[in-house]
Amino acid sequence: HSSKSSITIVLEGKNNITSGYYSSIYVAGEVTITGDGTLSITASDRGIRAGDVEINGTTVNIKAPSDFGIYATTDMRGSGNVTINNSNVKIESGSWGIYSGDDRPAPSGDDTGNTSISNSTVVINLTCDANVIYAHNGGINIDGSSVEMNKTAEGYNPPVYSSESVSISGGSEVNVHNAEKVVSIQSEADIEIAGSTVSADGGLYTLGTITVSPAACTMVDIKVGPDQEHYLDSPYGEKVVFSGSEINSLYYNYVEIKPHTHTGEIVWSVTSSTHKGYYDCCGTEVPEGEHVFDR
After folding, report:
1. Which is the most buried residue in 145, 236, 249, 287, by most CB within 10 A?
2. Whole-angstrom Cα distance, residue 257 to residue 245?
3. Cα gap 208→190, rounded to integer Å
4. What phi and psi, each to the nearest 5 degrees, are found at residue 263?
5. If residue 90 lies in a helix (H) or strand (E), which one and from where to where?
6. What are the respective helix, strand and coil percentages of the chain, to the nearest 5?
7. Cα(132)–Cα(223) distance, rounded to whole angstroms?
8. How far is it, in rounded angstroms, from Cα 136 to Cα 116?
9. Contact 176/201 with Cβ under 8 angstroms?
10. Any idea of the CA torsion for 92, 93, 99, 104, to the nearest 10 degrees?
């Protein structure tokens, strides 16, 4: 427990915190956890509660079977932001896995309630009808990371909820499992997926738009339903924006977004001086190189 405005925990070797009452780490301000070591938390209440939580360049495992895994809130003298960078984090929670934000304005007036995950591996398992990641009055940004989220209890709370935008980019791999098979990722603004892989067995829902962009010089598959059928004009070779009724088939349904996998045959176009090959499934040209073909 700390009443300071900020505290930094530098991990060396293996470290364990077990709390029999209340939060294992409780800071009225910002807490930063870093270092080459590891930290395992077993909490009877909340794993980490602070104004802001930053996990940077380290490994943290949290077991909070009856409450929040990480709870960052503005009533704790912070902005209610959770930042995970270049780290390995695993959370097993009986309530919200990561909760960022609050109704109260941040003392600094900065952006509040954001959850940001970059260059990290994160696994969150939730055993109740709550949100795996909940950004109360901020956005969710996942960049260059592997994130697996499992909600094993039935109920209508989506595993991922943001009152602002959800952004997934930088070759991230995001898998969301919802036992209820309803909405898995919900945004009150927009959802943007760029050059990344996303699977959500309850689909995507937003009050704004859903934007999907392939990585440079590639195509992207968007598949829906139990048979994983291509959606509309999938695969796409450039950015596509869905809005209005186009979004209806992307929620209450299995959705998979990933780099295009060629399922067709190569068709060769041969002249006296050149030869080019194209996949007949999507028209993509075969990369240049040495090819064996019959003339």
Report:
1. 145
2. 19
3. 5
4. -115, -5
5. strand 88-93
6. 5, 50, 50
7. 24
8. 13
9. yes
10. -150
Alpha-carbon distances, residue 147 vs 84, 120, 122 (angstroms):
11, 8, 5
pLDDT of 280 = 64
Q: From 213, 210, 160, 222, select the one nearest 185 (Cα to Cα).
A: 160
Q: Which of 278, 277, 280, 279 is nearest to 290 (CA)?
A: 277
pLDDT tens for 15-29 read 999 987 788 999 988
In whole angstroms, give the CA distance from residue 29 to residue 17: 20
Structure tokens at 210: 């859903």
As a whole number of angstroms, the distance between CA 150 and CA 78 comes to 28
- pTM here? 0.88
β-strand pairing of 210-213 with 240-242: antiparallel
Q: Which of the two residues, 21 and 108, has the higher pLDDT score?
A: 21
The closest of 134, 106, 233, 119 to 170, measured between CA atoms, is: 119
CA distances from 23 to 1, 34, 81, 92, 266 (A): 8, 19, 18, 15, 59
- 79, burial (CB in 10 Å: exposed 0-12, middle 13-18, buried 19+): buried
State how far the Cα of 198 lies from the Cα of 48, in Å rounded to an integer.
28
